[in-house]
Design brief:
Layout lengths: L3 E5 L6 H12 L2 E4 H9 L3 H7 L2 H15 L5 E4 L8 H10 E7 L2 H8 L13 H19 L2 E4 L5 H15 L1
Parallel strand pairs: 1-3, 1-4, 2-3, 4-5
The chain binds shikimate-3-phosphate.
Amino acid sequence: MASNVILIGFMGVGKTEVGKCLAGELGFKYIDTDAMIEADEGKSINRIFSENGEESFREMESRVLERLAGSKKCVISTGGGIVLRPENVKKMKKLGWLILLWSDPEVIYQRTKKSDIRPLLNVADPKKKILEILEFRTPIYRSIADLEIDTSVLSPEEACNKITAFLRKEK
Ligand code: S3P
C-alpha cells in the first residue's frame, strides 16, 4: 500500500468525515490541510481569504504540502482548490493514492448551505457558483484521481469501505 491516502474533491463532498473514518480503519493519522493552515495563521479560512486574499491562501496550501513530504501512514484531507496548482498535484502524487470524492451539485449545495465557513460560496447565488467552479475543476480532479467515489448517496462509512477495499486490492 502507498504511504498515504489523499482525499481530493469539491467542497461539501465529505472529505473530512470520510477521512476520519478511513484513518480509523487503516490505523493512520488524520491530517486536514485547511486545519493546518488555520493553526499556522491563527485565524479562520474566511479571515485568511478576506484579509490575505485567495492567492496567499493558495501559497499557504503549497507550503503545507511541502511540509507533509516524507509523511507516512496518513490520511490527508485537502481543501477543494488544492488541485489548482500543478506543483501541488505533483507533491500529492508523490505522497500516495489520490482518492476523489464526488457528489451531485444539488447535494453539494444542500450540504454547504448549512454553514458560512467557505468564502468562495458566500455569494448571492451559491448554486451558480458551485456549477461554475465544478465545470472548471472537474477535468482536473478526474485526470489526477486514482479512484473516484460518488458520495451523493453513500454514508461516510460506505465510502470509507469502498476505499479500503480498493487499497487492499492494490497493495
Ligand atoms: C476551497 C475549499 C475549502 C477551503 C477554502 C477553499 C476551494 O476546503 O480550502 O474555502 O477552493 O474549494 P473544503 O473543500 O474542505 O471545504
